[in-house]
Predict the 3D structure of the following.
Amino acid sequence: MPKAIDHLAALTGYRDRDLLDVTLAHALMDLLHPLEVAVWKLVGEGDQSRWLLRARLEDQQVTAVSDPPWVAFEDLPPRDTATLRSDCIGAQAVVCGETDDGERITLFPLLAEGEAIGVIEVRTEAPVGAGTQRMVNSILRIYRNFHGLLDYSERDTLTGLLNRKTFDEAFLKTALRPAGPAQGSSDERRHDASSARHWLGVVDIDHFKLVNDRFGHLIGDEVLLLVARILRSTFRFQDRLYRFGGEEFVVLLRCASEEDASHAFERLRLNMENYVFPQVGKVTASVGFTEVLPGDAPSAAFERADQAVYFAKQNGRNRVCGHGELVRQGLLKDSTKIGDIELF
């Protein structure tokens, strides 16, 4: 019992979702002594969803393994390729099975806000007893409650997107992470490259004040909800989407080139332009983006993207402008800042 309490204390001591899932895997490994524990999450929509490995530990293994943070969606196993996991998700209940080698598999659903978001897969030599299953389910209830608290503190209450206070930490992780191989994708906007770069985009809804003034704030809120839905459907599951307040949204994404980033944001612009918003009709957005440079400060990168947005709004709105291209054309001053140093 003291060991279980220690693990629960560790589980609720982190504010990082990656560490939360890894700690959960370690806790179950220490408590159950299985052959393997794996934490799988579903990403994507409906029948097109796929399995993302959040943490896996084998017996005597010290460090958990997981899928890379920017893994391509197409490289993940489809939902229907793992029958037991799909059954566990569908039933929202414990599911048991057996491998071809005679190992026992016990799967526990990971629940959040009344729906299953993933599974815990436990491989053992002998069946997991009813008492042990109850203990694991109790730990997972604590996990679910803490996961809900993280959502409450990290997400915008209206749109469900990440909120502004989570941005700086995620940005710094991105800026400090060395560039690595770009993940393959069939999406024409993202190409394979020897190294990947990160891009910050600021999305500002055009004439949003007029929407509120003409139709009221309830309709304005509906527009914000629908814009958030368009953002989710336009970008990949691993791209980070934020609402910064009002009509301003921020996107942090990874791709190989400025051209690819421009295509991604142009697709968003077109998706918004072509969407018919109930009662309101047509709503457009202006987008500015910039490359995240090594050692960049969050405020500096945001300022560059914001300058590009301002230029877009001053020059017709409903357009995508890249800070780098505007500087090359002499339309903006190059005021790139690295940390607290401004480079001219």
